[in-house]
Fold this protein.
Amino acid sequence: MSELSQTEPEIARKLYELINPSDAITFWATPIEAAIIADKMLDAPYFVKDADTGEAPKVSDLEARYNEIWCDAKKISSYAEAYRSFVIGKPSERCLYDEAIKRMTADDAKKFRTEHHASRRSSINDICKSCWEAGDRIALCHPEPSRDTPTPHNRSGH
């Protein structure tokens, strides 16, 4: 996979798979967000791969890219949405799920997501719920001044 620059105006989201011992899980993210999420998930140990190519997401200078997120409100919001997009299901099922959600009100979509999740989850770890909660915490963050050294406070480890 080619390495991408965060300075590009808009980087399209792609579908990724979270490889873990139990449930098939997919999520939408930019390649930079996916690479960061993949790095964060290694401790579990879970792995991330592009749903189309099967390749692991890679970017140059991952730490700098991670730090850039916290200096820009749009990047924080996008990063939060990546975590909120985690859903149980195979890539082949994700299109149908997304189409169904698009046709619902926000309240109905949230209820559907919860019911869909409860009926399909087999993992005791509840990976998706943990990711949704991380996304909610990330969304509460405000941009920080740019700095050379990361400050992990207020980031909840994500």
Observations:
- The beta strands are 14-19, 25-29, 47-50, 87-88.
